[in-house]
Each structure stands twice: as C-alpha cells, then as structure tokens.
Amino acid sequence: MKRKVAAILAADIVGFSRLVAEDEDGTLRQLAAYRNVLDDFVVHHGGRVFNTAGDSIMCEFDSAVKATRAAIDIQDYMRAQNLTSPRNRRVQFRIGISVGEAVERQGDLLGMAVNIAARLETLAAPGGICLSRAVHEAVTGHIAVPLVDIGERQLKNIPFPVHAFTVAGQDADIPPEPLRSSIRSRVMSGLSVAGACLLILIGAGGFAFHDQPSRPMERLAAEAGLLSPVRQRAQIPVLIADPIEAFSGLAQRGGQIDDPHSAPGLYHNALLFEAKGESIGAHRAYYTLARMGLEFVDPHLRYAALVRAHEGRLIARQVYAELNEDVPTRATALVHALQFESAERRARLQALIETHPDYAPAYFFLAEEHSEDRVGSLQTAQDRRVEQAALAEFLKAHEEGRLMQLFLDQSVAADWIEKAYDRHARLALSGESVSALPMFEP
Predict the structure, then answer these.
(1) What is the CATH number of domain 243-429?
(2) Residue 72: CB partners within 8 Å, gap ≥ 6?
(3) CB-CB neighbours of 17 under 10 Å
(4) Which residues of 63-90 are buried (b: 16+ CB within 10 A; e: fewer)?
(5) Highest mean pLDDT out of 18-32, 41-55, 151-165, 410-424
(6) Alpha carbon of 311 to those of 124, 208, 285: distances in Å?
C-alpha cells in the first residue's frame, strides 16, 4: 500500500433521492451530463476522480489550492446552470475539502483525510464549500474569495474536533463573522451554518426579543449576541391600492427594488434573490414580508421552502410556529401545518378547515394529502372521496371570486386552479361520488 499526502474533494448532490423519485430517467441524464463537466474541471486543475457512489464523488489533488479552485469552478458552473432550470429540478452540490495523509489501494484512497472531506461536505450549504483548517492555511493568500471561520466541529465518526471554514458564494449562506461558542454547540446538534446565518438575518432585519427567550431560534440568537433584548412589534406593512397589480407591474418591469417596504416590492426582490442564488437576501426579504401579517399565501410557501431546503423541515416548522404566534394569519397557520408529516399534517389541515371553512388554499392541500400522488397504491375509496370533495370546495371558492385575492403572484393561483380542475375531472371519471358524504371520517 502506498501512502501519500493529498488534498481530497468530496462532493454530494443535495436531495438526490427526491430528484430520482420525481424523475429517475431525467435525473440520471442530468447527473451524467454534470459528471462529465465536473470531471473536466477536476482534470483541468490537475486532479482525478478516485471513487464514485451514486450521487457522491471523491477527487484527489496534489495541492489544496488546486482542489479549492476546482470546487469554486464547479459551484459557479452549477449556479449558472440552475438559473435556467425549474426550482424543483435544480441540481446542487455540497463540497468538502481536506488535506492529509491517505493510503492508496488499487487506485482508491483511504484514510482520515478522505473521511474528514466526506464529513465536511455535510456542513456545507447547498451550493457551498467547506474546508478544513489545513486547507484554509494552504489557500489563504492564493484564493480571492472570502473564507469564514465556523469554528471547531465534532464530525460523525471522527475522534477529534475539526476546525472548519466555509467559502462564501452566492448559493452558500455564510455568517459574516465567527459564531460564539455558546451557539456552536447547538449548531453541531442540528442547526447548520445557514441556520445560524438566518438568525443573523433576523437580527439584521430589526426584530428583537426578550432577555430570556424561550423559543428555539430566539434563544440561539440571543445567546449569540445577535439580537437586542427588547421585542419589537411586527413590522407595519406599507399599504398600496392594489398590491396584486403592483406585483405584476414589478414582475414585468424587472430589476431589483431599492429598500422596498411594501409586500409587492419585498416579494419581487425575494424571488429575484432566489433566482440569482443570493439566499441571504432572499431570507431577509421573505422574513420581513412574513412579519407583515398579510394573507397572501404564495410568499409564505416559498419562504418555507427556502428554509426547508437550507435547514430542513424542523427549522422551517420552528420558524412558522413563531410566525404563527407573533403575526397569526390563515396563511401562517396553513404553512405551519404543512411542515409536519403525514397524519399530523392531515389533522392540522382538517383543524384549520374546521376553524376557517371558507379558506380555499387549505382544501387544495387537503386534497393533495389524500391524492394518489401522495399515498400511491394505498389510496382508498375514502381518500378519493375526500380528495374530490376538497377539490370541489377549492374550485367553488375560485368560481365565487374568493381565491385570487390570496395570491400576490396570480400565475401561482392559475397553476393551482388548472391542477385542481384536472384532478377533479379525473376523479369524476373514476365514478367516485361525493354526494351526501362527509369531508372527514368520524
């Protein structure tokens, strides 16, 4: 066995299982195409791919600088490709890089440096890069990008803490300064670097909390010294005559709005930041809009999806639990319910409908919960009846003019309506009648 010192780059696709489940052939074609490009970048920077496993790729370089430059090129390329792809079909890599001694066996590399690179990759945000301290020391002065110290991390199956750094990029949510040790221990127990960054954004947005906050995100933010100890009221929205028309005008005109204070301006900017991969700006705009206490549902759905993509469902659930407490609306209650799983989500949707029987978006999601797309071959006759009845209520709200006013982006509502009509028609053809049947089982 040959021993060598090498820089190891570990890359992994974010949400690969979901992408394959939704479109296996398309995803595998995408992966093959991106692998060819990735391999070219690796070779261009003097490296080689020594191991692949599904969506994971391990590469070897003879210097940390070359490995980091290859990683930056890969992420820049992927970012550009994703700008023209539907959000649910975007492919993003997380990348980790370490340097150290490795053992070569039949072309494969084994050892602690390989293991650390694989674990650092899990710390990176989607589209981001995470480095070990040794890599940081090697590239400082050679790589013209910001490097952020995120402190020592206890990585799975690594017997010692690893001091880690992140490479700031458009898709990677990076805190502007090292986090205090009081928050680091909590970050290691489940909140990622991007989650810590979200806390900073909340502080930067001017929302402050009590001296001893009891809610998860408040407590972490207060202990990190990111927020002042006095809670402010929810931001007062700037009201305009027709926000839906205003948003449509902004969408047609394009371009970023400087210092927006209205819901249309904030939503327009948030979508623009998302399209450019600027997650920090998107978080800030969505959070400010979410605290206005308005009933538009589509910005809340996109904000929750953004938090979920970077932080996971648990953090999204906590964010919307707090929003639903501070600025409760039917929209915050709905999006909070959607952060739960299966039976709990159904129960919360049913409770919301019982409290607000005229709230059309809740019926749309209740129908989805009972649909064949959701439950597959386990769909029962009762599921089909509930789905059809919920779709009927949703479409009734549309036909009575009660639906479109709940969406800032009217194209989102139009898409929902088209899907609802199509699903309702298919169910009607199946012969399942909903007449005289209750919406919910007793």
Answers:
(1) 1.25.40
(2) 129, 143, 145, 167, 169
(3) 11
(4) bbbbbbbbbbbbbebbbebbeeeeeeeb
(5) 410-424
(6) 11, 22, 17
pLDDT by residue (tens digit) across 139-189?
A: 888 877 788 888 888 888 787 888 899 986 544 433 333 333 333 333 333
Q: Which of 205, 202, 235 is nearest to 221 (CA)?
A: 202
Locate 392 and state its tokens: 């009927």
Q: Are 391 and 399 in contact (CB under 8 A)?
A: no
Query: Which CATH number is 2-172's, of 3.40.50.720, 3.30.70.1230, 3.30.70.260, 3.90.226.10?
Result: 3.30.70.1230
Instruction: Give the model confidence (pLDDT) of 264-307 as tens digits.
Output: 999 999 998 888 877 778 888 898 899 999 999 999 999 999 88
Three-point CA angle 100, 105, 108, nearest 5° = 70
Is residue 2 a contact partner of residue 104, using CB atoms and an 8 Å limit? yes
Residue 23 phi, psi dihedral angles, 5° rounding: -160, 85
Q: Measuring CA to CA, how many Å separate 200 from each of 182, 208, 228, 261?
A: 15, 11, 12, 20
Distances (CA, A) of 32 to 15, 22, 104, 386: 16, 17, 26, 41
Q: List alpha helices for 400-440, DSSP H.
A: 410-429
Q: Which of 367, 422, 421 is nearest to 398 (CA)?
A: 421
Residue 308 contacts by C-beta under 8 Å, 6 or more apart in sequence? Answer: 315, 316, 339
All structural domains of the chain with their residue ranges: 2-172, 243-429
Tokens coding 278: 């600027």
Number of H helices, E strands in the chain: 19, 8
pLDDT on residue 178: 36
Cβ 372 vs Cβ 379: under 8 Å: yes
The DSSP bridge pattern shows strands 93-105 and 129-132 to be: parallel
Q: Kind and range of the H or E element at 171?
A: none
Q: For 111-145, how does the pLDDT look when each residue is reduced to its tens digit (9 = 90+)?
A: 888 989 989 988 888 888 999 988 998 888 887 77
Number of other residues whose CB lies within 10 A of the CB of residue 32: 9
